[in-house]
Amino acid sequence: MLRWSVIFLVIALVAALFGFTGIAAGAASIAKILFFVFLVLFILALIGGAFLVGKK
Of 18, 23, 47, 19, whose CA–CA distance to 9 is shortest? Predict the structure, then answer.
């Protein structure tokens, strides 16, 4: 998921460079959403892993 976030960020930067502001804004918002979804899933995995290690 982090890979897709970086891909959309690069698309947004290239689109902004060429003046496609609408596409750049859309790609940047998608990148932001994917990054926050990645963060939430990563934190949940860390918490879940800590509880599993603690039960051993």
Answer: 23
